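Sample intake — Redox protein
Collected from: Variovorax soli
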Amino acid sequence: MGFVAETGSGHVLMMDGAPDPAKPENGGQNLAARPMETVLAGTGGCTAYDVVLILKRGRHQVERVSVKLSSDRAEKDPKVFTKIHMHFTVAGKGIPAAAVERAIALSHDTYCSASVMLAKTAEITTSFDLIET
């Protein structure tokens, strides 16, 4: 159940399924991320990228941005995401909270194709911590 995906940009991404002790022939070996984990991780990367760009374009002194995603999925197939929460940590000098809130909203509502797409099946919520450096 291990897979290698080559992206359009020529990079390689490894994926695997969860081990299934009851039916080992149907499970993975837990050697890489699950496909749906990569969807969630890609969404986090997409939105974090936007937040950094939006803040920098606003001439804010951003030092680092991280985002932690948590999610719930439907119990029956297709097990789509039904809830996603994105918690951002933004560190920098003199960045107003309103600017961070605006950057997150712009990413979520307009620029991040992944979160706009996932919002079709999932309730997406956000929060953030702002760290003065």
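Post-analysis note: The first strand starts at residue 3 and ends at 6.
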